[in-house]
Amino acid sequence: MIYLDNAATTFQKPPAVQRTLCEAMRRYGANAGRGGHKLSIAASEMVYKAGEAVAELFGIQDPANIAFTLNTTMALNMAIKGVLLKGGHVIITSMEHNSVARPVVRVAKNRYTVVRANRQGIVNPADVEAAIQDDTRLIVCNHASNVCGSIQDISEIGRIASGHGILFLVDVAQSGGVLPINVEKQHIDLLAFAGHKSLMGPQGTGGLYVREGLELDTILEGGTGSQSESLSQPINMPDRLMSGTVNMPAIAALGEGIRFVRKLGVGAIAAHEMKLAGRLMEGFGNIEGVTVYGPESVKNRVGVVSINIDGLDSITVSQILDQDFGICVRSGLHCAPLAHETIGTLENGTVRFSVGYYNTQSDVDRALTAVSKIKKGKYV
Amino acid sequence: MDYAIAMYSSITVANRVKKLAANQISYLGIIQAPASLGVKGCNYSIRCKFEDLETLRAICDKFGLKIKAVFKETIQNGEKVYIRL
Ligand SMILES: Cc1ncc(COP(=O)(O)O)c(C=O)c1O
Fold it and tell me: pLDDT for B32-74, tens place per residue?
């Protein structure tokens, strides 16, 4: 099989990640932060070390300000509802995933503005500034689109948010591990990340960074292994946002995934993925009847390349790729209808090829050959 | 040997202190201090040599990490006793 669905979840994972996951279960699979015995303390230390790795990657001063979650969706829900449960206006972009759009619609009712990106999926920061209202409390923006790979200028949007005293939440599900991110330099108050994508961790991992001193309303309360004498949720991070048993083996393995990324260097991983994405874009561009979406230059995107083949349904194409060519891609709306509406593909969706660190040039070439054959109807 | 027990509000804070102090303090461990000490909560604490307590306090001060309570752990008449400082 050729796996080109890394935007959903990266696969393969580094050997050290696989090893750590198994070792955590075999050697110290106790409940982190729920006891004083050696195994529980060792388990909590693994979670702490993973927090340190996240902090180092994103320029976060104190690992305690990172709460691990089950995925990006949970982190985004905690941030959006944590800020907006008490009301206020929120700005999102038209490139957001439903993990932003749905909680916003639910909690903000009609007090939200969607800032439209252009057809290439790029948002003009000036449009974000123009959408600010007196009671705007939050701006939410994804760093890179899971639909067409477009990258937003989060430094500029962060500067605007900070200048207006508005909280800035960035969804780095598609960019964490492949683009440089620094919460201080980019004025990010809340950062939601996926552990299972380019940070190379297992599924069931993600997290939320909360700027020091910012106290979110909670959407989940329970045991934290701290201040157990109190019936109120603790204020201190990460306990405020981490109730219940954590997914320690996966979090420990995520820590290893991040160390792997840092060792190789975010820039080197990005360069590899850009090369492959560029090859895909160029190759698709040379096949008549294939439309490539998103920014024209590979420089403005992560390794996500969405296409359509004239006259063919996107889901049919991915089924043919899977069944006849052994190539895994994702088609349809990718849980981001606003983004598809923006780039003009709401009806048919797109066929999304997303490269990862473990892909090779030969994977990409086989995908190009397959699409060419499908276009010519020569695949059976 | 006498030990110092410094209690923190959570395991995360205790882990952070352990990490920050690792190169400056020779013996360092995280324990859950006994409930009978009268401090409410889960009592995650750093246990270190008593002589290292001032270094530990200085590190906590420097990084703004609040110590909930400090005890001296010592042996009296063959029994372990805790003295609140
Ligand atoms: C941009 C973006 N945001 C959020 C999510 C949701 O991520 P998760 O599946 O980790 O909840 C995704 C998933 O693909 C995504 O691409």
Answer: 888 888 787 778 999 999 999 999 999 999 999 999 999 999 9
pLDDT at B21 over 60: yes
Distance between Cα A313 and ligand 1 center (Å): 24
| Residue-number span of the structural domain to which A84 is assigned | 15-264
Q: What is the pLDDT of residue A380?
A: 57
Position A189 scores a pLDDT of 98
Q: Give me the residue from A33, A45, A228 closest to B41, CB to CB.
A: A228
Over the stretch A328-362, which tens digit does the pLDDT of each residue have? 999 999 999 999 999 999 999 999 999 999 999 99
Q: A205 CB less than 6 Å from ligand 1?
A: no
Q: Which amino acid is at A291?
A: T
Model confidence over A180-236: pLDDT tens digits? Answer: 999 999 999 999 999 999 999 999 999 999 999 999 999 999 999 988 889 999 999
Does one domain contain both A204 and A222?
yes
Residues A270 and A249 occupy one common structural domain: no
Q: Are A86 and A153 members of one domain?
A: yes
Question: CA A359 to CA A222: how far, in whole Å?
Answer: 42
Residue B76: beta bridge partners? B79
Contact A16, A202 (CB under 8 A): no
Q: How far is A26 from chain B (nearest CA, A)?
A: 22
- Domain boundary residue, one of A237, A264, A291: A264
Reported residue count of chain B is 85
Domains (range + CATH), chain B: 3-84 (3.30.70)
Contact A227 B42 (CB under 8 A): yes
Q: How confident is the model at residue A366 (pLDDT cuts 50, 70, 90)?
A: very high
Burial readout A110-141 (b: 16 or more C-beta within 10 A, e: otherwise):
ebbbbbebeebbbbbbebbbebbeeebbbbbb
Which pLDDT belongs to residue A57? Answer: 98
Residue of A146, A175, A208 best suited for mutating to test ligand 1, as the one with most atoms within 8 Å of CB: A146
Please work out whether the CB of residue A331 comes within 6 Å of at least one atom of ligand 1: no
**Is there an atom of ligand 1 within 6 Å of A354 CB?**
no
Neighbours of A378 (CB within 10 A): 8
Q: Are A113 and A91 in contact (CB under 8 A)?
A: yes
> Could you tell me what percent of chain A has a pLDDT over 90?
96
